[in-house]
Structures are given as structure tokens and as C-alpha cells.
UniProtKB/TrEMBL annotation:
InterPro entries per UniProt: Bact_response_regulator (IPR050595), CheY-like_superfamily (IPR011006), Sig_transdc_resp-reg_receiver (IPR001789)
UniProt-recorded name of the protein: Response regulator
Lineage: Bacteria, Pseudomonadati, Bacteroidota, Sphingobacteriia, Sphingobacteriales
Presence of keyword Phosphoprotein: yes
Record keywords: Phosphoprotein
Species assigned in the record: Pedobacter cryotolerans
Length: 130
């Protein structure tokens, strides 16, 4: 899967586990993505505006919020409504996750395989939904 090195995609990762955030960041950077990470949701909307992500990876269980509620904020704001979102969770699986009114573009249960993560990101950036 060769990537065009001149086109950098911005990925915003919101994950409260520093080890997981670091691993995702390193992997994505090694694949030539530009990555910004947050470990809580507090300044999410300001951060989205400043970083202008092409895709967001959003953990469901955050210390200061539920990723599903954050997804609703993202989807109901004109400026952010079309940003693709990949949700991740250690608590839920694809079978047990209960999404709210808005569904993410993809979902991955933790622990996940790095190749699955990269495949989903590439697919979502190409317009697929999982």
C-alpha cells in the first residue's frame, strides 16, 4: 500500500490511555500521517478547528466524557459534521456497542491489530463505512 508522500492527512486522536495514544501516534506517523493527540475531550472543538483533521480516532470511555456524546457534538456542528470518525473502545465490541443518534464511520474494539487500524483508516479516508 504505497502512499503518496506529498499528501499528508491530519488525524486527531482522542484517547486517555497514554500508552495507546503513543502507539497509535507512532504507527500513524510512520505511515506519513500528521497526528495530534488529546487525552481528554475538554478542548476538542477548539482543537478540531486549529488542527483541521481529515479523520478522528475517538475513544468512547474518556475521563471527562463519552465518545458517543462527543460524536453528536461533531456531527451537529456545521464546521465538523463531515469529519470521518473511527471510534475505539476497550469496553465494547462491535456486537455490544450501542451507538447514539449518530454512528461513526468505523468502530474498532481494543486491543486491535495494527493492520486492522491502518486498513480502517485508509478505507474511511477513501469514503468507506465499516
Amino acid at each position: 500500500m504505497a502512499k503518496n508522500a506529498t499528501i499528508y492527512k491530519n488525524i486527531l486522536v482522542i484517547e486517555d490511555n497514554h500508552a495507546i495514544l503513543d502507539v497509535i501516534t507512532l504507527i500513524l506517523q510512520s505511515e506519513a500521517y500528521k497526528v495530534s493527540g488529546l487525552n481528554k475531550s475538554a478542548d476538542m472543538m477548539d482543537h478540531i478547528q486549529a488542527f483541521n483533521p481529515d479523520l478522528m480516532i475517538l475513544d468512547i470511555m474518556l475521563p471527562d466524557g463519552d465518545g458517543r456524546e462527543l460524536l453528536t457534538q461533531i456531527r451537529t456542528n456545521k464546521k465538523t459534521a463531515n469529519i470521518p470518525v473511527l471510534m475505539i473502545s476497550a469496553k465494547y465490541t462491535a456486537a455490544t456497542i450501542k451507538h447514539g443518534e449518530y454512528k461513526p464511520n468505523g468502530f474498532l474494539a481494543k486491543p486491535f491489530d495494527i493492520d486492522d487500524l491502518l486498513d480502517k483508516i485508509e478505507g474511511i479516508l477513501a469514503g468507506k463505512t465499516y
